[in-house]
Write a structure and sequence with these properties.
Elements: H1 4-28, H2 36-49, H3 51-63, E1 67-71, E2 74-77, H4 78-94, E3 102-106, H5 111-123, E4 126-129, H6 136-146, E5 150-154, E6 170-174, H7 188-192, E7 209-212, E8 222-224, H8 234-237, E9 247-250, H9 257-268, E10 272-275, H10 282-292, E11 296-299, H11 301-308, H12 312-316, E12 325-329, H13 335-345, E13 349-355, E14 359-364, H14 366-371, E15 384-388, E16 402-407, E17 423-424, E18 427-436, E19 442-447, E20 452-454, E21 457-459, H15 461-468, E22 474-484, E23 488-497, H16 505-515, E24 524-527, H17 541-545
Parallel strand pairs: 1-10, 3-4, 3-5, 4-7, 5-6, 9-10, 9-11, 11-12, 12-13, 23-24
Antiparallel strand pairs: 1-2, 7-8, 13-14, 15-16, 16-18, 17-18, 18-19, 20-21, 22-23
Length: 549
């Protein structure tokens, strides 16, 4: 009998979450309570074509003539991308791509990327979203593991494809005049030209999508995202007031979870999505916000850092007063970064904490970050977050650090290679360690595998890094552990200095010593022009530890 009680509580929680989720979607304008048929139709399409294609088809039903995306080539409406992707689906079928085939997409953010993803969803092909920062070995490893049978890619990445067999079909999603493109190369424009653009028949089952982990310590793993109920959108919208029928500037790449989730939500809310000119540029981002009077900006923390670092004259040259939400995710937002963002843009920064595997875990609102700098906030509707000790006992005391575990409707069911993350009480490990404060706000203290044991003391680099970037003469900082004969590991700090920096290692050490415990003071201080990061802004610590002096 007692065993039934937890199950009953779980069911009650699920019902309560469902009711709260529906209410969130209603308040945010994603669901019309007078038209339940629209939600039913969207859900059916998601089951048949996948959430990406279903969202655009839904948008075409509601506002076909409204602008959906803007890139270097101009504007496409919801109806445009729906019809053109129908034509492209038929064109891709002529190349041999069939339902169930695995197709890699290696593209930057533009119409070609969007049309490719839509067409593959409508065909029922399984798409693998490749990282634009891949070198040949990484691309080859992922393509082999995922059993890729075709590649859709931008012309700038043609050389990367030398790493896979030459008989794998290739289709260009974007062509740059500067690239040496073969005269017989097939483009998506070729494939959709002259083809019927009416709706395509639904595949027997959705092909699904594979999003790759960041791969900061090796070859990225594949996290499948095959199906998702439209109701899980409430997890993003519960604590982030994304506007509807407005404009979003998309700086974060949509091949990864941060950009992809907000791209889909933005379209679902009827927004116009403005892409960068394919590669991130801080001033161009400000220009896009000003020219389009954007209500939302989607970034990863390093992008926000670079925007703030352009200097007061450039920041003042662009009117960004239209911004109501800066959505930031992908890695930690330091207290200094949130403070500086509030000074320049007002209290509009929302920081989502999650991962490729667990998806959404917590969201920090501007009020959260103002009252508790460094927090990642609280779990939104439908999410459960708990902290466990090394023996996997639940930690209930505020301030006690343990491993973070998450449950959400978007958590994945395992990597494509069959491996999985640790699961405790139905919750998935995020791979991070952290703690709750007395107000229930979550703090991430660092990655579990980033912890440095120096002289018998545990040090999480994030604490030292957050302190260092508070200095006005430090633009970016990273701390790693390197081998030491006496201490086992010693701390080495890598600093990207600002223009006023005196590049004095002892000054940096004294600053840390004045603010943190002695064992957290870096023995080595190295100044460099830029820290190694991947295309989503994640720090590549392994590259720093490999540097020899």
């Amino acid at each position: 009998m007692l065993d039934v009680i937890p199950e009953s509580l779980d069911r009650l929680r699920a019902v309560a979450d469902l009711a709260r989720g529906v209410n969130v979607l209603r308040k945010r304008g994603l669901m019309n309570p007078l038209r339940p048929d629209q939600l039913v139709r969207l859900s059916r399409r998601a089951d048949r074509f996948g959430p990406f294609a279903a969202t655009v088809m839904h948008g075409a039903d509601l506002h076909a003539g409204a602008p959906a995306i803007v890139d270097e080539r101009g504007t496409l409406s919801f109806g445009d991308i729906d019809r053109q992707s129908n034509a492209l689906a038929r064109g891709l079928a002529t190349t041999g791509i069939a339902p169930g085939d695995v197709v890699a997409v290696l593209s930057r953010d533009h119409r070609g990327m969007v049309l490719a993803m839509l067409a593959l969803g409508k065909l029922g092909a399984r798409m693998v979203l490749m990282n634009t920062g891949f070198a040949k070995p990484q691309f080859a490893d992922v393509a082999a593991r995922e059993r890729v049978s075709a590649v859709l890619h931008d012309s700038e990445f043609t050389g990367v494809l030398d790493a896979v067999p030459g008989d794998i079909p290739r289709v260009l999603t974007w062509v740059d005049d500067a690239d040496d493109v073969a005269p017989n190369a097939v483009t998506i424009d070729d494939l959709l030209a002259g083809r019927a653009s009416d709706p395509v028949p639904a595949p027997a089952k959705p092909g699904g999508m594979v999003i790759l982990t960041s791969g900061t310590t090796g070859t990225p793993k594949g996290a499948p995202r095959d199906t998702a109920s439209p109701l899980v959108s409430a997890q993003f919208l519960d604590r982030v007031p994304l506007p509807r029928d407005n404009t979003i500037v998309m700086a974060a790449p949509i091949f990864h979870g941060t950009g992809l989730s907000q791209f889909l939500l933005g379209l679902g809310l009827g927004n116009k999505i403005v892409f960068q000119q394919r590669k991130f540029n801080a001033e161009q981002t400000l220009r896009n916000v000003a020219e389009h009077r954007a209500a939302t900006l989607v970034v990863v923390p390093t992008m926000l850092q670079r925007i703030l670092d352009v200097g007061p004259e450039i920041l003042a040259a662009y009117d960004t007063s239209s911004l109501r939400v800066i959505f930031c995710a992908g890695s930690s937002v330091s207290p200094d970064l949130s403070r500086r963002a509030a000074e320049i843009f007002g209290e509009v920064l929302y920081n989502l904490y999650g991962s490729t595997e667990v998806a959404v875990a917590a969201v920090a609102t501007p009020a959260d970050m103002r009252t508790a700098p460094g927090t990642v906030g609280k779990p939104p509707v439908g999410c459960r977050v708990a902290v466990y000790d090394a023996d996997r006992n639940l930690i209930t005391e505020p301030g006690v650090v343990g491993t973070i575990f998450v449950s959400s409707g978007l958590s994945f069911a395992g990597y494509t290679d069959g491996a999985n993350k640790e699961i405790v009480d139905g919750k998935l490990s995020s791979g991070d360690v952290g703690h709750f404060d007395s107000n229930g706000l979550l703090f991430v203290d660092g990655r579990d595998d980033d912890m440095i044991v120096s002289g018998g003391e545990n040090v999480f680099p994030l604490e030292v890094e957050n302190l260092l970037v508070q200095r006005p003469d430090v633009h970016d900082a990273a701390v790693v552990g390197v081998e030491d004969q006496d201490f086992g590991k010693r701390l080495r700090a890598f600093i990207v200095p600002g223009p006023d920096s005196r590049r004095d290692p002892q000054e940096i050490r004294d600053f840390v010593k004045a603010n943190l415990a002695r064992h957290k003071v870096p023995r080595d201080v190295v100044f460099m022009d830029e820290l190694p990061r991947n295309a989503t802004g994640k720090l590549l610590r392994n590259k720093l530890t490999a540097i020899q002096f």
